[in-house]
Amino acid sequence: MSEERAGSEGAAAKQSLHPAAMSERLPRWMRLKRDSDFERILKTGKRLTAKGLVVYALQNGLPYPRLGLRVAKRIGTAVRRNYLKRCVREVFRRWLKKVLAGVDIVVVVTADGEFAQIKEGLLKVAALLSGWR
User: Any idea what the CATH number is for the domain that residue 59 is in?
Assistant: First the structure.
């Protein structure tokens, strides 16, 4: 019985660590999910490029930005592609969310890169887009 109790206390302790981490996630409502949204932005949005990235942007009429991601299967393994997506989401969440309010953005990763390169490219594109409205 003491083992059961220890196990449940351990689980509770683990859960208490997660809420802080969970609050830093990019909320689902800030993510583009529908193919129709992607197609609309890719066809009619403004196209900007940075090293290893192509960014499409279109005003959305909402008080917040939304992010969509595409990474080609030719880029590394699934683990590497997921890492690149996490990098883009992190830059968006930390630095771009307030700057690009009211804009839908689709980021197409065209080449493998590191976090610093992705951050630099997205911040450069954000600077160009901030005066675009």
Answer: 3.30.230.10
